[in-house]
Specification:
Arc Repressor Mutant, subunit A
Length: 142
């Protein structure tokens, strides 16, 4: 098979990664959670407490939009807002135990789905994907 041209490779990778991402996002523990809500929740689990403004900046959304996301997460019991210990005028948001459980279960489901697909591949195909994963991480690194 002849190598693809750079434009064709760009297109193939874009389509394949979008389909893979979309398929993985379907594997979730809480069906009512939107992608952006899960993203914020997973970020809080991974990095700890943040102010709503920090979360807005990280998600590249407006503060009112982040407030709606946090309201939904708080109503579901997945996050808790509390006064900042060092500055009572500020609010910090943390994931609750329920929020942590949702993130862990979603990650488990996504890993299980991917594991099943990888197990069906040949060792050579898995080796190629292992190399590709490293290359993709390099491409998206800041």
């Amino acid at each position: 098979m002849a190598p693809l041209s750079l434009p064709a490779l760009s297109s193939e990778l874009r389509v394949a990664t979008m389909h893979l991402s979309r398929r993985l996002r379907n594997e979730r523990a809480e069906a009512d959670l939107t992608d952006s809500q899960f993203s914020v929740l997973a970020y809080l689990v991974r990095t700890g407490a943040h102010t709503p403004n920090e979360l807005s900046a990280w998600e590249h959304v407006t503060p009112p939009s982040m407030n709606r996301t946090l309201n939904a997460l708080e109503a579901a019991g997945f996050v808790l807002r509390s006064p900042d210990a060092s500055d009572g005028r500020r609010v910090v948001v943390t994931a609750t135990e329920s929020g942590l459980a949702i993130v862990k279960e979603t990650r488990r489901k996504r890993d299980a789905w991917l594991h099943t697909r990888l197990a069906a591949l040949s060792p050579d195909e898995r080796r190629v994907l292992e190399e590709a994963a490293g290359i993709l991480r390099t491409m998206v690194a800041p």
